[in-house]
């Protein structure tokens, strides 16, 4: 039998850091995942003061994390809120409109990552037209003036 050399010979013992390395930043039970969905992870960066993506929806749930800066986040039925670096967000996708994902600051960029579960043969993002926004205005949470 040939000699087998240990790959750990002469090394320090394995670290126990893995036992405390994990921090949960978000847990969610999405209401629906499209059959045959595929995952897509993107990084988005908007310059200072940028309003972000126009009103849109995703074909499946999306999970995100703010890397730098501050984002204004608004989903249909929820009031807008500011998310800061280190905070997570999610949206159910499907028929829910995502109104805002813009930069809350006019002095620094915002950078965030989003992992989306996309329905096969559908775009990851579909813009919502003005007619539909008007028809669904009663579903948007009241906004402070």
How is the secondary structure organized here?
Layout: E1 38-46, E2 56-57, E3 62-68, E4 70-75, E5 81-84, E6 88-91, E7 98-100, E8 110-118, E9 126-127, H1 130-135
Antiparallel strand pairs: 1-8, 2-9, 3-6, 3-8, 4-5, 4-7
Concise synopsis of the structure shown:
It contains one helix and nine strands, in the order E-E-E-E-E-E-E-E-E-H.
Descriptors for this entry?
four-stranded antiparallel sheet, Jelly Rolls, mainly beta, 145 residues, single chain
Structural features, described:
This protein is mainly beta and 145 residues long. The chain contains one helix and nine strands. It has one helix at 130-135, and strands at 38-46, 56-57, 62-68, 70-75, 81-84, 88-91, 98-100, 110-118, 126-127. The strands form three sheets. It has a four-stranded antiparallel beta sheet, with no helix packed on it. A three-stranded antiparallel beta sheet has the order 5-4-7, with no helix packed on it. It has a two-stranded antiparallel ribbon with strand order 2-9.
Structural class, from helix and strand content? mainly beta
Q: Main β-sheet: number of strands, strand sense, barrel status?
A: 4 strands, antiparallel
Task: Report the C-alpha radius of gyration, rounded.
Answer: 21 Å
So, the CATH homologous superfamily of the domain at 32-127? Jelly Rolls
Spell the H/E element sequence.
EEEEEEEEEH
User: What best-fitting shape do the alpha-carbon axes yield?
Assistant: elongated
């Amino acid at each position: 039998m040939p000699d087998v050399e240990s790959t750990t010979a002469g090394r320090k013992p394995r670290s126990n850091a893995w036992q405390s390395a994990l921090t949960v930043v978000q847990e969610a039970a999405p209401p629906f995942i499209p059959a045959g969905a595929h995952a897509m992870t993107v990084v988005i960066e908007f310059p200072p003061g940028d309003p972000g993506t126009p009103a849109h929806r995703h074909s499946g749930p999306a999970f995100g994390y703010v890397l730098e800066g501050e984002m204004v986040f608004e989903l249909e039925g929820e009031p807008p809120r500011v998310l800061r670096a280190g905070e997570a967000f999610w949206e159910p996708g499907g028929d829910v409109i995502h109104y805002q994902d813009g930069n809350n600051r006019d002095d620094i960029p915002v950078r965030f990552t989003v992992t989306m579960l996309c329905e096969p043969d559908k775009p990851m993002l579909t813009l919502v037209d003005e007619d539909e926004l008007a028809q669904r205005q009663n579903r948007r949470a009241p906004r402070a003036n």
